[in-house]
Design a protein that fits this description.
Alkaline Phosphatase, subunit A; 10-stranded mixed beta sheet; 550 residues; Gyrase A, domain 2; 23 strands; 20% strand; alpha/beta; 21 helices; 36% helix; 4-stranded antiparallel beta sheet
């Protein structure tokens, strides 16, 4: 074979083979991002030997990033979901937590909006409150996906969750956010997204009546005595509100309960996650057809693990069995998707918005005495009493959110700089004297230090946003919790158990299975996905694409 013939063969290969490979790599017809709320990497590792279904398939056949972290000093649901979808830090996207105090001292939820602009749909009209992505300051991958929609290749972007803030953080402005309404037991949205609920969703709500049985029964996936449940503290209810298990018990739901809490109990169960997957399946059925050019970006945000994790802890039978049910539910979801579309055209991403700390009292019982529980309300009262005695200000501190201390900005701005600096310095000294509190930073201090990447100071700095962050940001020692509950646990620290999360990519026949052990950040998901989808990355995303995915 002469050189000219060889060149022709190579050229023919490039023309016929390479483009089809690139297209299959960069243009999945369906992209599904499953965000499992509060799934810490070590929690998944703990149950991995006992997984049998969808999660096991992903771990065995996907690209598994074993060292993925949320770059936040105070990880939270809305902060984590927004970081994943926008590829940016809190200092850019503005979601410093699930809620914060504004300049007037009012508590502001991350997804709140005026009724006029974003009224939430009720079963027979609208509610007297609104929800929207108003406080998200940058665009996300859902927005860029929709901006690339064309008449010949229509794009659809949905985010479905039990929690409104998770759906809104991932749908952003141009996707459609759908969430579970705890007053009606059905999925809803707001006028920030649609003028009426989609036809397919109305049909789904009519078919799946959560309220009809009046209760749900949580049956363990495996027998009670199975090795899959034999973990230390899996049956320890000493530090749990009510001191009883939900597994293998009947849980009341529905209109006969208090109107403000009709379906909150339901959200604690595996059935609630199944409802989200069923809704996602209906969404796919409505928009994806083998013979049509429509493309779908779908966020499936399951939240029940977070609900039970806060109350029962990550080592509880509730949390463990929830993961086993998720393993099976994901398998059933895969089967539904693959019945509709060639599985080689579907890209799956699985991750979490944050991890979770063990219950500190359980750690004490096992000999690890690092943990502390600091009551946030009592802390505010003690600090205000100190300021009253020393500086004659009675209510200067408004409250805490996460591990942030909020002071009344009107009073602060009315002081001289010298007085203000003295009060802040005194508060920092007093806070550092508390067992469990390492340091209290001002935003100026965090911004002025040269913090190494991946350090606690770096994580805190990247979560600052003017007008929303606290006057003082408290860094606690590992396993210290500042909050209002005397039971359960939380996830508001910059340590590994709260920042280290699973991250798995899977597309049959396209992405080669491997493990990536290099430390990566969840803000790299959006630019990587944009590259695969062949669309612009979100405008505030500055991180490199993930190594080893492509």
């Amino acid at each position: 074979m002469n050189n000219f013939t060889i060149q022709k063969v190579i050229l023919l290969y490039i023309i016929l083979v390479v483009p089809s490979h690139i297209q299959s790599l960069t243009s999945p017809k369906v992209t599904i991002i499953i965000v499992i709320d509060q799934l810490a990497y070590d929690s998944l590792q703990m149950v991995t030997p006992y997984l049998k279904y969808g999660l096991k398939k992903l771990l065995l056949e996907g690209v598994v990033c074993t060292n993925a972290h949320h770059p936040h000093g105070m990880p939270a649901t809305c902060t984590g979901h927004t970081a994943i979808s926008t590829g940016s830090y809190g200092t850019e996207h503005g979601i410093v937590g699930n809620s914060w105090y504004d300049g007037e001292g009012n508590l502001t939820a991350c997804d709140t909006a005026t009724t006029q602009d974003a009224a939430v749909f009720a079963p027979d009209g609208i509610y007297d409150y609104g929800k929207s992505p108003h406080y998200i300051m940058v665009d996300g991958i859902s927005d860029q996906f929709m901006l690339c929609s064309t008449p010949t290749k229509p794009h659809h972007a949905y985010a479905i969750s039990l929690k409104s803030r998770a759906a809104i953080a991932t749908a952003n402005r141009m996707g459609i956010a759908l969430w579970f309404d705890t007053q009606s037991g059905m999925f809803t949205s707001s006028r920030a997204y649609v003028q009426e609920l989609p036809v397919w969703l109305k049909a789904f709500n009519n078919t799946y009546q959560v309220s009809s049985p009046g209760s749900v029964y949580w049956r363990a996936l495996y027998p009670d005595n199975a090795e899959a449940y034999r973990f230390i503290d899996s049956n320890n209810y000493r530090y749990v509100q009510g001191h009883t298990s939900l597994v293998n018990s009947s849980i009341p739901i529905g209109p006969h309960l208090d109107v403000t809490n009709q379906y909150e109990q339901f959200m604690l169960t595996p059935q609630a996650n199944k409802l989200v997957f069923d809704c996602a399946s209906s969404c796919i059925t409505a928009h994806v057809h083998k013979d049509k050019p429509d493309h779908l970006l779908l966020w499936v945000c399951v939240s029940s693990l977070d609900k039970v994790g806060h109350q029962f802890g990550p080592h509880s039978k509730e949390a463990i069995d929830m993961l086993y049910h998720l393993d099976l539910q994901i398998q059933h979801f895969f089967e539904h998707v693959e019945a509709l579309i060639d599985p080689t055209h579907v890209l799956y991403i699985v991750t979490s918005d944050h991890g979770i700390s063990p219950i500190v009292e359980q750690l004490h019982d096992r000999g690890l005495s690092l943990g502390r529980r600091i009551n946030g309300k009592e802390l505010v009262q003690e600090l205000n009493a100190y300021l009253d005695q020393r500086h004659h200000y009675t209510h200067l501190i408004i409250g805490t959110k996460g591990h942030q201390l909020y002071l009344d900005t009107k009073i602060l701005h009315g002081m001289s700089k010298k007085k203000r600096d003295t009060i802040i310095s005194d508060l920092q000294e007093v806070l550092a004297s508390y067992d469990g509190i390492k340091k209290a930073w001002t935003d100026h201090e965090l911004l002025s230090i040269n913090a190494p990447v991946y350090s606690a100071e770096y994580y805190f700095r990247q979560q600052l946003f003017p007008g929303r962050s606290g006057t003082l940001i408290m860094q606690v020692y590992p396993y210290t919790i500042i909050g209002s509950h005397t039971y359960g646990t939380s996830h508001k620290t910059p340590y590994t158990h709260n920042t280290h999360v699973p991250l798995i990519w899977y597309q049959q026949g396209t992405i080669q299975k491997k493990q990536i052990h290099k430390k990566v950040l969840t803000v790299q998901i959006a630019p990587t996905l944009a590259h695969i989808l062949g669309i612009p990355q979100p405008s505030a995303a500055t991180s490199d694409i993930l190594p080893g995915i492509l």
